[in-house]
Amino acid sequence: MKILPELKDLHKEMTEWRHRIHKHPETAFEEYETSDFVAEKLESFGIEVHRGLGKTGVVGTLTQGSGNRAIGLRADMDALDLQELNEFDYRSEVDGKMHGCGHDGHTVMLLGAAKHLAATKNFDGTVRFIFQPAEENVAGGRVMISDGLFEKFPVDSVYGMHNMPGHTVGTFAVRKGPIMASADFFEARIIGNGGHGAFPHLATDPIVIAAEIIQAWQTIVSRNVDPLHSAVITVAQIHGGHTGNVIPAEVVMAGTTRAFDPDIQSMIEQRMRQLVVGIAEAHGAKAEFTYDRRYAPTINTADETDEAIAAAVDLVGDEGVNKDVTPVMGAEDFSWMLKERPGCYIMIANGAGEGSCHVHNPNYDFNDEILPLGANYWVQLTERILGPEVS
Hints:
The chain is an alpha/beta fold. Helix content is 35%, strand content 25%. It has 11 helices and 16 strands. The chain has helices spanning 5-9, 11-23, 32-44, 103-120, 140-146, 149-152, 206-224, 262-282, 302-316, 335-340, 371-386, and strands at residues 48-51, 58-64, 70-76, 125-132, 157-165, 172-173, 177-180, 183-191, 195-196, 231-239, 246-247, 250-259, 286-295, 298-300, 321-322, 343-351. Strands 1-2-4-3-5-16-6-15 form an 8-stranded mixed beta sheet, with helices on both faces. A 4-stranded antiparallel beta sheet has the order 10-12-8-13, covered by helices on one side. Helix 7 packs antiparallel against helix 8 (262-282) and helix 9 packs across helix 11 (371-386). It is elongated, with a radius of gyration of 24 Å.
């Protein structure tokens, strides 16, 4: 790995920053202390700071030279509603909340890059350091976009990065096109007519109707989606009834859908709605259906992915970059930024072997060893795209 000496020297300080953030996790739209810390650091580096987009979001702007190009670099700040089981001295001090996805490390890697870029100014143009709240569950990236992120802070392209447990330190993974799926959430309410379990002919049983709907929904994937493409429909909850001999009046089902293709995403919503309404009506019941398009597919654009690959290769060599990683059905709300601007979302290895575990695990911890490498990736990418100032 070729890491700048200045970022190696910053390693201890970045580790201290991350441990501080890790001890004080804050979940969606409550990242007050974290955003205070980020804003104070950016200001101390001499970077212009704007606050309030996406409620607790922070955007730093650094301009150098006379170039009119601008890029956005994004890190997420929020933690999870999860009880930490680690025993190290910087473990979470907040009951029921922890940085179980590495957003503390993402924040610090971008802060480290901001400090270095502000000191060296080896570029010509504008860098937007985007510190986003509420990535988990509620799509804070979508909120920042709706608050006018790119109207107030224009960029030509935007880039994101996430840690990747289970892979050897010093490697990256990326691909052109879809890298993560959409994540939509639905709820269906079947309204029938309750009655005694011994006299089903006098009732309109919403449980039987719900069972038929669940089976029918699975045919969307098996019969409406091209077999060479991917989609998932998961019914994760079903609630109805209170006792063993009474047919309830209502049943509620809820779950999630996933797809890499926006057209398939739209088709799934349409077909689910048709089936739930049609099957309910066929049985003499009513149906209410809500569908929340919370996370779009994360789709990397070709030219920007080439820039990201080149920056990573400069640091770890060609063999250290998987350029066609298998996409995953997990979702990421950086997708909303990629819907607005071209860009690339890349994975940085968080380590493999004993002690490593996947994200959203109560024993997870971000690997401090990769902090300088991640910061250096941001620096390398910025200097590649914006280039040095021409005197």
